[in-house]
Amino acid sequence: MAAEPDIVLYDLACTKNVSFSPVVWRIRLMLNYKNIPYKTIFLEFPDIEPTLKELGLVPATSASGSKYTVPAIQHVPTNTYIMDSLPIAQFLETTYPSPPVPLTSGLGLEIETKARGVLGKAIYSSVMPREIHILSPRSQEYFRRTREASIGHRLEDLLDDDKEKQVWDGVSDAMAAVGELMLTHKADGPFVLGAQPSYTDFFISGSLQSTRVIDEGVFQRMIRYPGYGEIYEACLPYMERRN
């Protein structure tokens, strides 16, 4: 009989039966890199809140209200439940310190902050409206209803070729600048800080892997910029387990 895993990872389900959420990938990469035994429970969009609420987790609060999100984990040895990627990463680093994954650095913070602004626009225009195509019918209905209520129009309206091109043209220089930051320590190794990966590497590669699962064309568009493909390739050994 297989040993019970240390971690139960709650992830977002898709029809490809692999992990595709960028925020869950950050944690999956840490688990894989640290070789922590875990199992995955995939949840459909409409099942996230009732499942996590039943587990006793407290919803995250933000300006838009309270909500339940993945990733969430159960640490089996202590029966501890944690939700959201950063608190989970902090717990994993404290509980499983070897090999270490630096969670913060000046360079990493700069990259993550700038990438959120730049990639956010590209993902909004090119990735988010295509995500619906890898969801089950139940999740498609939930995703369309909630996203279209937020943006005020149909998802397909974002995929106008001219509008999409304008978005990419508008972020091109900024994406290149963020990519150059990723290569700051390239003389010391393939990762943001040099020879060993950090949480920032998992932030970048997780976002890229999410994009790749949703749409290969958008992924290829992103890795044309310097830095992105290099970080992704360096993290590939920690992406072998995807479910």
Summarize the structure in short:
With 243 residues, the chain is an alpha+beta fold. The protein is built from nine helices and six strands. Strands 2-1-5-6 form a four-stranded mixed β-sheet, sandwiched between helices.
Structure description:
The strands form 2 sheets. A 4-stranded mixed β-sheet has the order 2-1-5-6, sandwiched between helices. A two-stranded antiparallel sheet has the order 3-4. It has 9 helices and 6 strands. Helix 1 (22-34) packs across helix 7 (199-214), helix 4 (106-131) runs parallel beside helix 7 (199-214) and helix 7 (199-214) packs across helix 8. A hairpin with a 2-residue loop joins strand 3 and strand 4 (65-67). 51% of the residues lie in helices and 11% in strands. It has helices at residues 22-34, 48-54, 85-95, 106-131, 137-151, 161-182, 199-214, 216-222, 228-235, and strands spanning 7-12, 38-43, 60-62, 65-67, 72-75, 80-83. It has 243 residues and is an alpha+beta fold.
Helix content: 40-55%
The end-to-end span amounts to 20 Å
Weakly predicted, low-confidence segments = none
Rounded Rg: 18 Å
Instruction: Categorize the overall geometry.
Output: globular
- Side by side, the strands of the main sheet go 2-1-5-6
Chart the SSEs and their pairings.
Layout: E1 7-12, H1 22-34, E2 38-43, H2 48-54, E3 60-62, E4 65-67, E5 72-75, E6 80-83, H3 85-95, H4 106-131, H5 137-151, H6 161-182, H7 199-214, H8 216-222, H9 228-235
Parallel strand pairs: 1-2
Antiparallel strand pairs: 1-5, 3-4, 5-6
Helix pairs in contact: 1-3, 1-7, 4-6, 4-7, 7-8, 7-9
